C-alpha cells in the first residue's frame, strides 16, 4: 500500500517531466498551469478515496492505495489506440500502457524520496 501523498507526488512528477515540457508556456502561465494540474491531481485522489467499490475490494484504504494492482486493472482497460485523459488547462492527452508504467516509476521514486 502506497500513501496518497506519494501517489500525488509521483503523478505530479510524471506530468512535470513527461507532459509539461511539451507546452511552450513560461513564467506565470506555467505556474498557473502547474497549480491547476496539482488541484486536478488532488481531486482525482479524493475521488478514488471516496469510491466504495475500491474500498470493498481492498484497492484503497484511508491510508493509501494498492497502486500496482490498480494500475494493472487500468492497463487492461486501455484500448490499443490509448486512453484519452482531460487535464486542466492542458487539454487532452493520450495515455498508453507504457505511460501507466512510467507513472508507477515516478510514484515509487516519490515513495523512496528521490
Describe this structure in words.
It is a single chain. The protein is of the alpha+beta class. It has helices at 4-18, 27-49, 52-56, 67-77, 97-112, and strands at residues 2-3, 64-65, 83-87, 91-95. The strands form 2 sheets. Strands 1-2 form a two-stranded antiparallel sheet. A two-stranded antiparallel sheet has the order 3-4. A hairpin with a 3-residue loop joins strand 3 (83-87) and strand 4. Helix 1 packs antiparallel against helix 2, helix 1 crosses helix 5 and helix 4 runs antiparallel to helix 5. The chain starts with a strand and ends with a helix.
Features:
two-stranded antiparallel sheet; two-stranded antiparallel ribbon; 4 strands; about 110 residues; about 10% strand; alpha+beta; single chain
Q: Structural class from helices and strands?
A: alpha+beta
State the helicity in percent bands.
55-70%
Largest sheet: 2 strands, antiparallel
C-alpha Rg, in Å? 14 Å
